[in-house]
Every structure is written in structure tokens, then in C-alpha cells.
User: What shape does this take?
Amino acid sequence: MSPVHDTAGSVRRQRRIAAGLREAGLRDGDRVALLTAGSAATVDLVLAATRSGLVPVPLDPRLTPRERADILDQVEPALVVDDPLILDQLAGGGERELEAYPRCRPMHFTSGTTGRPKGVWSGWLGPDDARAAVLEERELWGFRATDINLAVSPLYHSAPLRFAMGTLLAGGSVAVVPFAPAPVAEAMRTLAPTTMFCVPAHLQRLFAWADEVGEPLVTDSFRLVAHAGAACPTPTRRRAHEVFGEDVVWEFYGSTEGQFTACPAPEWIANPGTLGRARPGRRIWTDSDDQIWCAVPPWARFEYWRDTDKTREAWRDSPHGPSFTVGDLGRVDAEGRVFLDARRTDLIITGGVNVYPAEVEDVLGSLPGVRDIAVFAQPDDEWGQRVCAAVVGEATDDDLRTAAEHLLAPPKRPKEYLRYDALPRTATGKVKRGELT
Assistant: This one.
């Protein structure tokens, strides 16, 4: 397949995949779990499924067998695609007509405060809402037929997949280049991409590589570089403004559940720290506890897959309309600019990946020789935060690292283990994570 995947080729492949999925016995509403490395074929399968009555579930192929089994038990997929050959086989037959727009969002999984991943399910969208969902993204980001989206982030994450899908649905092209500084720099030079989504760690590594090799990055073709997923260090942000252009760089704030704000560089420069204002069609407000809520249009609503209690906790009726929260704390100024004060409780964001301490503690806390454990974040110049563990017990660092390699995906594995005789706790037994260093 060519490095640049255009819409015409994508639509043909989508039609063949849609037909192949039905020939494999899938019926309306069935789930398709996708556990392959990201490629243009990944985007084609997701679009084929969402445009033909099926639900794609993109998952990290690095999940351990335990993590994978837990999610698949929840999803009960009719098909698991864990080998690129399966994608080729699905696209090897006839064709099936597609809906004009995706009738659902891909079901991405996000961890909860209990540590168990939850599926974010949009439900089925009627034709008008399906169209509105696509046009909202297109109008915000300006997706067009002349675009080449450089997809450098893993496509099992919602943001990079959304940018790639939006580009193809607008008639543009996608080039998938899994992130490494040299290949991405080469793609920027030779493919003339116009858009890119990345996390701050990507920008840091790209700039460090350019400095090391002594070659400037070729960025003239870009009209949009959007970053999100973690707090962007100010030096990295200002370097991005310089390298790509203040009129090119945007930041946005959101989550797997939904999108809140969009912020062009000039707005951040004039108001350092802001995450911008609410996206069109949304209203952001805070409650008496400074928790951020977002009122959204019908096509942006969701539920947690087969979890009515968690869904109920996330939503609230308000004068602004049905609103959801992911537990983040912040404020909204008089001009509607949003400022984030704290991410949801205990969440660690490392390289744009969400890691919940509870999940890591559940796995490592069951090991022999671990009497108590608390997982927490330390600042990291490259990744924003790194995962650390405070341990009480006789288990050695080697024991813990070996177990983590077998039981946890790479972003969740602690990078550092600290020894305590006893963990600091409140009177009610909660760990004082702020005292862990």
C-alpha cells in the first residue's frame, strides 16, 4: 500500500471490508475488536464498520493476555482482528454499499477510578446526527480534499483516529507513520503533509532529534498541527509555535468520552495556561466543587458500555443541557476561556496515555512479598509524567519489573520503585499520594 492513502482507494477498500465482515457472519450491531498495529487499513476497517452497522473496538495490541481478556469479555466481539492478514482477507471479496456518514463512534476503552477499563459507546446515530458529527469536526479543523494527514500517534487512541477518519471523509489522504523522529521528519520532508495530531512528547523528541542531527525540520506544508493528551511544557510549546507557525499550532482539551475545547496558539500566547474556549455547540461550566462539566449536542453523547451506574455518575441535567464530566477540576473565566487546575483524581498521563494507579496497584499488589503498594506520578521532562510505585514488602525490584512486563502494557509499568516501611495514609485509610516522592 502506498505511504499516502487517498480517499478513492480507501472507499474501495472500505466497501470490500464491509462485505467481508458480513460474509464472515457479522450482523447489525456486532462488535469487531481490532488489535493490530496502526495502518491505513486500520482506518479503513473502522470506517467500513461504522458505515455498515457494526461497532469497531480499537485496542492497544500491546495489551497483556489478562488485560485483553478482560476487555473482550465485556465487548463479546463477533470477530477479533489481531493479524494484518485478517484485514487483507476481509478486503478480498465483493463490495457492499456504505452509509454516507459513520452511524456510531468507534468504541474506545478508558480506565476508570476503579482501575477497570470502560467502553465509551456513542449509541447509534440517526442520519441527521451522523452528518452533524462529521461536519462539526470538518468545520472546526478545516478538513478538506487537499489534506494529507500525517498520523504519527497510535490509531487505537481516539484523537489520531478521529483526525484520520475526518480527513478521509472530507476527501483527503492519510499517511500513517508510527512515531520515531527520523521517519516522521522524512515524511514531513517528502510527503508534504498538511495536518498532524501529536502529543507533547512527540514534539519534544522531534525537536531533540533535529538539534542532535543539526537539520531543520521541513514544515512549510502544514496548515494544522494539533496537540493534546498531556500538559505541554512551555518551552516545547513555544518551540512548536516557532517551528510550525503560530497560525498553525492548536491545542485542544478533551478525553476519550468527548471533546471540550480548542485553542489556537495566539489565544494561548495572549492568555498563558488557557485551554481555549468551548468547541462550537458546547457549553463548559464548573460546579461548586470546581469540577468541569460540558454540555454537548445529541451526537456527542455517550454511555459507558453496559455500566449504567458509571454512566449515571458521569451525566447531569443542567440549565445548559445534558452535561458530562470526567472529574477534572478547573475554572472558566468571564470570556469563556477554560483553565485546568487538576486532572481527574489520581490519573497519570504519561506520553499522552492515561494510566490509573488503581489498575497497576491491583496487579502488582497481588504479588508475593508485596504487603502494600501505591502508584503515583513524578514529573518527567520527556513524557510529562512517569509512573512510580511506593512498595512495602520483601518483593525485589526485579520481581516487580518481571511481573509488570508480563501483566501490564508498557505505559502502565512503573519506571521507579521506592521502598517504604509504611505508606502515609489519612485517618480514613486513603493514601496521601502527595507525600510520596
Q: What stands out?
A: The chain has two domains: 5-278, 348-435. The longest strand covers residues 372-380. The chain is about 30% helix and 25% strand.
